[in-house]
Design a protein that fits this description.
Length: 405
């Protein structure tokens, strides 16, 4: 097996383990906070939000720092740092005795995380140019699968082991990711003796600044749009379904439908982007998502919503891999770690802002209004991508094809 393919396999497994470990915490945080002595329902909700959001918020600001070190010392050391560090911290959460200790450990977790972003950088710099779309699309399914199955695994294990032991299981999963990376990921990287380029020097080295910035903005808007809906899906399902006794299960199916379709579609759409250009795939995906969010405001039952979410998942399965492919094609490999980390920052900030603003819009104007605002946000993104990304990338792609024939 070629080195980059073996690395892709291990990074997929590592991304799955990391994402499943992180997402397992979502349904059990309120239970753990209650076990730590917080009994008031509103207080549990507040502390759960702080505990969950603090990790993502901190990740947004530390991602560029780890990306900088990845460019200087290599991507594999960053994967080892993230997996081992998170294994220790997540396992330590099981020893927390107060909600303040829990928050502190969640903040530390956000500080040292970064396995998935490191994997993206490693595969993007190693995969052949004509296989980059497929490789990054396949890699994304590892993280999506982990995010999808994590809550299901966590909810099941809580029934068997109890809340505290779940964090030990998560730590063990991350430790497996560490050893897989240590023994099976190979990277030919020579540490630079020179001082790393400053941000201004990096900015000047970019040939097409507006295209790169356009990708960062697209990442932010896409994540903000998607995660403005996620926190209120369960509430929306409760207004649609007559099966209130199985609300959690039905909501889980609605959540899972978009993730499942993304897993199925991402490798195929990645391969398509290698043939027709990632700029075309992402533009069509954005247009489809813009359209598909509107009918979700008019559904009459949970099954209609599930079907539309399945279709949205196909569109979203094309977005982030296409963005990463476009970035790979337009940045020097020497600064790839930092550029992908900047994109990760945009992604984390989008998740954070989407969760906050989505809940506010739903509370003040109604959940159905949220689908229209999300669609409008994506439509603005379509116009920006067409103007600053599609037109330029289309010319470059056509030029490259003409010279290869």
């Amino acid at each position: 097996m070629e080195n980059w393919k073996r690395n892709l396999l291990i990074c997929w497994l590592g991304s799955f383990a990391t994402s499943s470990a992180l997402s397992q915490v979502a349904p059990i945080l309120p239970l753990y906070i209650q076990e730590l002595g917080i009994n008031d329902l509103s207080a549990i909700e507040v502390w759960s939000g702080i505990a969950f959001g603090s990790t993502t918020f901190v990740m947004a600001f530390f991602s560029p720092f780890w990306g900088k070190l990845a460019d200087k010392y290599g991507r594999k050391p960053m994967l080892l740092r993230a997996s081992l560090g998170m294994s220790i911290v997540v396992g330590s959460i099981s020893l927390a005795h107060s909600v303040y200790q829990l928050i502190a450990l969640r903040v530390i977790m956000g500080t040292i995380s970064g396995y998935n972003s490191g994997s993206i950088t490693l595969i993007a710099t190693q995969a052949p140019k004509d296989k980059a779309g497929w490789a990054l699309g396949t890699l994304s399914t590892g993280a999506v699968s982990g995010m999808l199955l994590g809550p299901l695994i966590g909810g099941y294990l809580v029934e068997i082991l109890g809340v505290r032991y779940i964090f030990l299981v998560m730590g063990f999963l991350l430790l497996i990711a560490f050893f897989l990376t240590l023994f099976f990921v190979h990277e030919n990287f020579t540490p630079s003796e020179k001082s790393l380029m400053s941000f201004s020097a990096i900015w000047q080295s970019l040939n097409d600044k507006s295209l790169i910035v356009g990708m960062f903005v697209t990442t932010f808007i896409v994540q903000m749009a998607l995660f403005s809906i996620e926190p209120v899906i369960t509430v929306y399902v409760s207004t649609l379904s007559v099966h209130t006794d199985h609300l959690a299960f039905i909501s889980g199916l609605v959540f899972a439908s978009s993730g499942f379709s993304s897993i199925l579609a991402a490798p195929w759409l990645g391969r398509l982007s290698d043939h027709v250009g990632a700029h075309k795939v992402i533009l069509m995906a954005l247009i489809c998502a813009t359209i598909l969010f509107i009918p979700q405001a008019f559904v009459k039952n949970e099954w209609q919503l599930m079907g539309l979410r399945f279709l949205v998942g196909i569109a979203t399965g094309a977005m982030l891999p296409s963005i990463n492919t476009i970035l790979k094609q337009n940045i020097p490999s020497a600064i790839a770690g930092r550029m992908f980390s900047y994109n990760q920052t945009a992604q984390f900030l989008g998740v954070f802002c989407g969760s906050v603003f989505g809940g506010q819009i739903a509370a003040h104007f109604g959940i159905r209004t949220l689908f229209f605002s999300t669609s409008f946000l994506l439509f603005i993104n379509v116009l920006g991508v067409h103007e600053y990304v599609y037109k330029k990338a289309n010319k470059k792609f056509a030029h490259a094809v003409s010279h290869s024939t």
